[in-house]
Amino acid sequence: MKPACIFDLDGVIVDTAKYHYLAWKRLANSLGFDFTEHDNEQLKGVSRVESLKLILRLGGKQLDDAEFDAALVRKNGWYLEYIQQIGPEEILPGAAEFLTSVRAQGIKVALGSASKNAVLILERIQLLDQFDAIVDGNKVSKAKPDPEVFLKAAEELAVPASACIVFEDAVAGVQAARNAGMKVVGIGSAAVLDQAHFVLPNFAGLSIADVLARFA
Ligand code: G6P
Ligand code: MG
């Protein structure tokens, strides 16, 4: 069975994780508490709503429903402001070349991201046409580590979960891939992503043949 590749977006294909962090930190500060990069690890890969719940728990703060919704809108407004200027130069090292190597093998490619801004970002970095299926935050109702986003991506590609290889930078995302019964390559720190089958710092110099050899 030919494998398929499912890519997370933020922190895997494009360097937007830092802008999510800045926007959440700004929100936390506006609510009267701080939010560190260490805290931010828990938010990577987690949906907007679940992220805000986590942040409020960390800050020991409660918001009523209207304030909660307003905070979500504020965070996304700041985030959109930060990413307004992004372009292909924010593609992470080797990611575009890696995608090309995958497609050259005739291997199907899906996006599996919690972000509701995914299509906008893929358009800006000019990679939208590299994906056979896009499953983003607008298509799922359960946040990672729930496997829904990756199972939907496999379904859209018509490939069984066991043949899918997921690329993830987030603890919750690695867990979601595991929960989907998929293979998972961590992108980032091996100490953080210890549940991945193996971890790479990024895609620089890497081709799909190298990854398939690791799983052979
Ligand atoms: C990705 C990021 C998270 C972000 C989530 C929702 O998974 O890693 O940090 O909270 O998407 O993104 P959105 O663009 O919809 O706020
Ligand atoms: Mg990510």
Automatic annotation (TrEMBL):
Its cofactor is Mg(2+). It comes from the Bacteria. InterPro entries: B-phosphoglucomutase_hydrolase, Beta-PGM, Beta-PGM-like, HAD-like_sf, HAD-SF_hydro_IA, HAD_sf, PGP-like_dom2. Keywords: Carbohydrate metabolism, Isomerase, Magnesium, Metal-binding, Phosphoprotein. Its EC number is 5.4.2.6. It is an enzyme of class 5 (isomerase). The keyword Metal-binding applies. Coiled coil: none annotated. The keyword Phosphoprotein applies. GO terms for molecular function: beta-phosphoglucomutase activity. Belongs to the HAD-like hydrolase superfamily. CbbY/CbbZ/Gph/YieH family. NCBIfam families: bPGM (TIGR01990), HAD-SF-IA-v3 (TIGR01509), PGMB-YQAB-SF (TIGR02009). PANTHER family: 6-PHOSPHOGLUCONATE PHOSPHATASE (PTHR46193), HEXITOL PHOSPHATASE B (PTHR46193:SF18). This is Beta-phosphoglucomutase. The lineage of its organism: Bacteria, Pseudomonadati, Pseudomonadota, Betaproteobacteria, Burkholderiales. The gene is pgmB.
